[in-house]
Amino acid sequence: xxxxxxxxxxxxxxxxxxxxxxxxxxxxxxxxxxxxxxxxxxxxxxxxxxx
Length: 51
Prior knowledge:
This protein is mainly beta. It has a single domain, classed as Single Sheet (Rubrerythrin, domain 2), CATH 2.20.28.120. The chain has no helices and 4 strands. The protein has a 4-stranded antiparallel β-sheet, with no helix packed on it. A hairpin with a 4-residue loop joins strand 3 and strand 4 (43-50). The protein starts with 5 loop residues before the first strand and ends with a strand. It comes from Candidatus Falkowbacteria bacterium CG10_big_fil_rev_8_21_14_0_10_39_11. This is Large ribosomal subunit protein bL33. Belongs to the bacterial ribosomal protein bL33 family. GO terms for molecular function: structural constituent of ribosome.
C-alpha cells in the first residue's frame, strides 16, 4: 500500500482506531465513512477517516 493513499479509520462510539484503508484523494474529496465491525464495542459501528 502506498503511504500517501493510506488512511486510518476510527470508531465513532469508542474512538479506537481499528482499520487502515486506501483512498484516492484526487477523486474523493470528502472523508471516508464506512460501517465496520469494532472489536472494542463488539458491534458494527460507523467508522470515519482520521489523520
